[in-house]
Design brief:
This protein has ten helices and 16 strands. It has 324 residues and is an alpha/beta fold. Bound molecules: NADP nicotinamide-adenine-dinucleotide phosphate.
Length: 324
């Protein structure tokens, strides 16, 4: 089968397609014929530098998520040709992932989906919507009364979060560093766009002098403390992203750094479950949502796809369609 194997850390255009054997099915794992998959920042990090980490073994087929059909259900309750999505559990990191025609995944990380969506749309959903859903609906406990800022609003996760928040009737603010992306955020449903150019705090407080109730922090620790200062009493900030390329806080002093009565939480997509996937797909169907797809590539163009994402030029989910 064709697969994108990471032999050593490399630049985007050094990624190529190899011929490798189809994985052999074993108990507890199911074989999926991959139809489409979305790209993720964690795959960019693996390719660029994390592939050298002591806990990663190369060569490795990249890819932490996919949409496809069951090719061999092994000892699971799935049936051949059933539509599924798969994500996480070590996919593309501790075992070979989805950048391939077939992928072998632990059955607990495979989820049935009942949807008429085409493969490209379905490929854009699993990791991004699971992350946006978990952050907004669970961690932030968003309600229609809330005013939410999605910090890093033009990211794929950010665009999904804006959609979900608007679909339940919340007021949504979204940030970008680039004025040229203003219209995209409004089209996605943002009520107000803030430009993250060092004056975001002033922009927000001019409109909401008392602060707002919820912030989804996708830039991460680089802007977290400022975000916490913009939250009202009993509001919540959820850290889900690290777009600011800073994963930790230096000299974190919780008593001083978290304003009294402000709650800090974080989301990790490590624990997907069938009932949550069902909720997400039901919600998507009920509210007629469509993922914001930046561009679709063939597997052979994986290098260009990684380059587009690395250049921050994607504005939505980058998807690979295995049928192209
Ligand atoms: N916690 C989890 O389980 C989980 C799961 C999935 C993703 N994530 C994280 O969520 C974040 C979003 O992922 P994604 O795949 O949706 O991203 P993405 O689509 O690749 O995001 C691209 C956008 O991020 C913004 N950006 C890039 N570098 C930035 C920087 N240094 N400072 C500020 N903004 C920057 C740019 O927006 P502008 O140019 O418009 O400013 C860019 O257009 C990532 O950090 C990812 O690792 C976390």
């Amino acid at each position: 089968m064709k697969a994108v194997v990471l032999y050593k850390t490399c630049s985007p255009l050094e990624l190529t397609v190899s011929e490798i054997p189809i994985p052999e099915v074993r108990p507890g794992w199911v074989l999926i014929r991959v139809k489409a998959f979305g790209l993720n920042r964690s795959e960019l990090m693996m390719r660029e530098y994390e592939g050298n980490a002591p806990y990663i073994t190369l060569p490795r087929v990249l890819g932490i998520e996919c949409a496809g059909e069951i090719a061999d259900p092994s000892d699971s309750a799935f049936h051949p040709r059933q539509r599924v999505v798969a994500l996480m559990g070590g996919m593309g990191r501790s075992f070979d992932g989805s950048y391939a025609e077939y992928t072998l995944v632990p059955s607990k990380n495979v989820f049935s989906v009942k949807t008429e969506m085409d493969w490209e749309e379905l490929g854009a959903i699993p990791e991004t919507y699971f992350t946006a859903w978990g952050s907004v609906m669970d961690c932030l406990q968003l309600s229609p009364d809330d005013t939410l800022l999605v910090r890093g609003g033009t990211s794929a996760a950010g665009l999904a979060a804006i959609q979900l928040a608007k679909s339940i009737g919340a007021t949504v603010l979204a940030s970008t560093r680039k004025r040229t992306k203003y219209d995209q955020l409004v089209q996605q449903g943002a009520d107000h766009v803030l430009i993250d150019d060092g004056t975001l705090k002033d922009q927000l407080l001019n409109r909401y002098p008392q602060g707002i109730t919820k912030i989804l922090e996708l830039i991460g620790p680089a802007t977290l403390l400022e975000s916490a200062s913009l939250i009202r009493h009993h509001g919540i900030v959820c850290v889900t992203g690290i777009l600011g390329k800073k994963g930790t806080l230096d000299h974190f002093y919780p008593i001083k750094d978290i304003p009294p009565g402000v709650y800090l939480t974080g989301f990790s997509s490590n624990y997907p479950a069938q009932h949550i996937m069902d909720e997400i797909f039901n919600h998507i169907k009920k509210h007629h949502l469509h993922p914001s797809i930046a561009k679709v590539f063939a597997l052979s163009a994986i290098g260009q796809a990684h380059q587009l994402m690395e250049d921050n030029a994607s504005n939505g989910k980058v998807v690979i369609n295995l049928n192209l």
